[in-house]
Amino acid sequence: MSLLISADELAESIRHGEKLTILACLWRPGEGASERQFKGDHIPNSLFCDPARHLAMAPSSRQGRNPLPSRQTLRLAFHELGLDLAHQIVVYDDNKSLMAARAWWVLTWAGVPGVKMLDGGYQAWLQSGRQGAGGPGNLAHRNQLVPNPGQLPTVTMDDMYALPDDVVVIDARERNRFIGRKERLDLKAGHIPGAVNLPLEELVHPNGTFLPAAELRQKFEHVGVEDPAKVVVYSGSGLHSAATIFAMHHCGLPGAAHYVGGWSQWCATPTNAVQRSL
């Protein structure tokens, strides 16, 4: 079963009244801005998923910019989003699928089966000739799922210190951040020593849809991926890395571990080594 759903497929599912939970994972800076964006424009029948409140904990230098949500946070999210096994969950966003990928990864990690992502996000929906809707969105279904975190592999910063030599560490950020040429978000520029760079931008078309599975596999093989169980992926704060892990699952390479703390946690620790250039 594909992890992606096209705008046409989603529209047909809505038209035929199929059981769906469509989560609009939208983020804007500022108090209440994300929900206001949702209420102004979203795919019909969507519910608002707040990435900052449903998919993460408060940022800190010790844990990174988007720490893993606690079990209590997950219970709140499951309840407010009305997650159950009877409805197909589809996640989307309007920002290069970064928040949708975070939602896919967190929900899958927390034990929700079969989550799909709208390929190309809200832009694909609009480009297919369809319109958005305003207002508060759909009512949540009755929650019947209990969070069960740990269903996808993760590593901590301590684990990163002790990785075997045969593990491929992929940095999913853009190349200029990887080589230390610029850094707008975190305390230092550069990357974790020994990491290889595979920017998320190389895994998608210019319109934001993912490359075909065969091409994705070639991209991962090119940076040394043979056994996905011997791969760790990180980014700045777990967004680009979640999308990269999604791409691995989509092309038949599940099993990579996620260093969720990522560069934002690593570079905030003064004793950690930093590598610049290729």
Automatic annotation (TrEMBL):
Sample GO molecular function, one term: 3-mercaptopyruvate sulfurtransferase activity
Pfam family, one: Rhodanese
Entry keyword Repeat: yes
UniProt keyword annotations, A-Z: Pyruvate, Repeat, Transferase
Domain (Rhodanese) ranges: 16-134, 163-275
Top-level taxon in the UniProt lineage: Bacteria
Protein name: 3-mercaptopyruvate sulfurtransferase
Source species of the chain: Corynebacterium choanae
Gene field: sseA1
